[in-house]
């Protein structure tokens, strides 16, 4: 509600910050999310269809160093991401970083590539890897804001959870004045999904 | 999009701040809004039904001193609000103020009352005036935030315009952790309307 996509006091033990996990609850409880993460539980909810679409049609992902984790200095190469041996991406993931690191091949089709050339370079590599499929910028806030500011996104899919975090990392900071047009709205009792097309 | 309900650099000449009027454009273009403001123009749009509902069933309004205008010091009693001789409220309006002022009766059923006792006192007077009808807290941001923080609102009707203002006055600042449940979502090509029920 208040624009924060992660709560205050982020730490290795609490990467989404205080209260940040509440933003994702609508998704985590779905059977579709559980299945994408190799689990068999979960419920069929009003948000299931949206959860099922999250990674579909995506040929490559881009994420920030903080979302991948492992500190912000030179790499501790024992760090292999937050997602265990088989991350839920099943596609190449291009991680923005200030430090070189060899690609990291995981089970299930996910390979993390570390890109030091900035957002345009990471996007170019992701586009090449994705071919005709889409590239998804996964997050976090700072990464999405950089892509918005650079005018490099075609769409933004926003999921407004009815949660006030009161601090943390905000979306839409330093992004200029993008032209956004809502093209799809799906409401549920737990979250409001709005897909925007972004003009140039 | 970025939580600002008024833009930066608010002034008597530009009370909504730079870009702030873009937030209300969806409403101002409707025939329903124009008619409420004594004009005959406007269009029938996907947002018309929402615009028509804005003031309906409302027996009294509450607003902040800044929304009413006229500076923030002792009253210049020549100031009669931004809305001309016949304001669009057609009901008593209770204006939060630090300075006493006699009630101001306008044409068309609007009387401005100036309340120095704070948000609870203003609400009590508005409730009494409204009888069985609703009390609407009109704004601005600081007033809505104070009512949210005090747990005095039953509903919040949010209209998310696809506009990034980059500065100004933000909603949901200092409001604690209210329990919000989306109960109605209406999407249009220009704005997303979400009505929330607020728990205690």
UniProtKB/TrEMBL annotation, chains A, B:
Source taxon at top rank: Bacteria
Residues of the signal peptide: none
Pfam families xrefs: RibD_C (PF01872)
An example molecular function term from Gene Ontology annotations: 5-amino-6-(5-phosphoribosylamino)uracil reductase activity
Bacterial bifunctional deaminase-reductase C-terminal domain ranges (all copies): 2-184
GO biological process: riboflavin biosynthetic process
Gene3D superfamilies, per database record: Dihydrofolate Reductase, subunit A
Name of this protein: Deaminase reductase
Organism listed in the record: Actinocatenispora rupis
Lineage, opening ranks: Bacteria, Bacillati, Actinomycetota, Actinomycetes, Micromonosporales
């Amino acid at each position: 509600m208040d624009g924060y996509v992660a709560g205050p006091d982020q730490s290795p033990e609490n990467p989404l910050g205080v209260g940040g996990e509440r933003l994702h609850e609508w998704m985590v409880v779905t059977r579709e999310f559980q299945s994408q993460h190799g689990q068999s539980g979960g419920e069929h909810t009003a948000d299931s269809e949206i959860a099922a679409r999250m990674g579909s049609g995506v040929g490559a992902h881009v994420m920030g160093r903080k979302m991948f984790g492992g500190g912000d200095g030179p790499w501790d190469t024992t760090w292999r991401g937050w997602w265990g041996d088989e991350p839920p991406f099943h596609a190449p993931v291009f991680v923005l970083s200030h430090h070189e690191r060899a690609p990291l091949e995981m089970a299930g089709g996910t390979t993390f590539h570390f890109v030091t050339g900035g957002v345009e370079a990471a996007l170019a590599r992701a586009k090449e890897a994705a071919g005709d499929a889409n590239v998804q910028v996964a997050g976090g806030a700072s990464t999405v804001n950089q892509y918005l500011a650079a005018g490099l996104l075609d769409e933004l899919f926003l999921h407004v959870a009815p949660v006030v975090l009161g601090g943390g990392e905000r979306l839409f900071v330093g992004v200029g004045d993008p032209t956004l047009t809502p093209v799809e709205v799906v409401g549920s009792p737990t979250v409001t999904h709005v897909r925007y097309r972004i003009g140039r």
